[in-house]
Amino acid sequence: MKDIMVFVKDARYYPEQKSLLIVGIEVESKRPITQQVLTKSLAEASGLPLGLVDDHDAWRYFASLLKKRTEPFRIVFEGSKTKEDEI
User: Fold this and answer.
1) Rounded to 10 degrees, what is the CA torsion of 9, 37, 46, 67?
2) Which pTM value belongs to this model?
3) Of all residues in the chain, what percent are helix, strand and coil, respectively (each to 5)?
4) What is the edge-to-edge ordering of all strands in the sheet holding 19-26?
């Protein structure tokens, strides 16, 4: 499992894919990042009830809150490549 801190510039919810697209700047490296995260994975990593996965209005609202954040947001994902992995 890997996590990164991101200053969010834009976040959009895609109900047909049940995912959030997060665009921002990685805190540590200052590089631009675009990451698509499944709502199920985000709910599991955050300890949210899995019943929220199908609540489209809640995820749209969450995306709007991410765009307004001034503090970095932690994205946690499993099965990610590390710096040692080949690209």
Assistant:
1) 20
2) 0.78
3) 30, 40, 30
4) 32-38, 19-26, 2-14, 73-77
* Cβ atoms of 81 and 4 closer than 8 Å: no
| Terminal-to-terminal C-alpha distance of the chain | 18
| Per-residue pLDDT at 87 exceeds 50 | no
State both tokens at 71: 């503090």
Task: Identify the pLDDT of residue 29.
Answer: 92
- Please answer whether residues 29 and 53 qualify as being in contact, where contact means their C-beta atoms are separated by less than 8 angstroms: no
Other C-beta atoms within 10 Å of 38: how many?
Answer: 14
**CA pair distance 10, 55, nearest whole angstrom:** 20
